[in-house]
Please model this.
Amino acid sequence: MKIIAGNWKMNGSRDALETMVQDLASVKSDNKVILCVPFTMLGAKSGRVAIGAQDVSAHTHGAYTGEVSAKMIADTGAKYVIVGHSECRQYHGDTNSVVRQKAELALANGLTPIICVGETMDEKQAGKTMAVIESGVRESVPADVNTDIIIAYEPRWAIGAGLTPTSAEIAEAHTLIAKTLSDMGLAGTPVLYGASVKGSNAAEIMSISNVDGVLVGGASLKSDDFIPIITSVK
Ligand code: 13P
Model:
């Protein structure tokens, strides 16, 4: 069983989500399907699809205009929340320590955090990919958790760019993440790959060892693109 998670980013509508949920209802697959949607779409009927948010406040409650707490997300019936996505790190300045705070609040409220790590192009070119990934995992993952978290490796330079690392690069990154998690007492934590996943490369990516599923951006918006990813692997 693989985990196929979609990240709609700032796209879609409640109608589009309803259509997607209907389209996915008849798909024959044992894979776990998650859709991480904008806050306004949380709480919609979602059938077999688990729903997640895309970010969460690092605060519990109070005078933080515009923010949404983990408790509020859980209150909608959502089960997951992405934390530390590349775009939140880039545009909102989320650091590993903020990401960790968000993940802790998610866990405290019964949500499974999908914690994203990955290197920028500058970091890749400077030969820092492995160091960035390892520190991302060590510093963003809360201590003393059970395995109720998911990690997503998203090479930041490849997101939305139609670029993907080579299979060897993905394997190297995922092996390091699995080893780091194991060192932290979190062996068995699922690790997803994300960045430019589509129907034509999903099966190959998910055949790489230590790749437990995918986190899909653009290709999760339309069922014609998303369903082939879900059905590409058993
Ligand atoms: P794309 O699949 O559009 O490259 O986006 C990946 C991503 O950021 C998923 O969180």
User: Anything to note?
Assistant: Residues 56 and 69 are 6 Å apart (CA to CA). The longest strand covers residues 112-117.
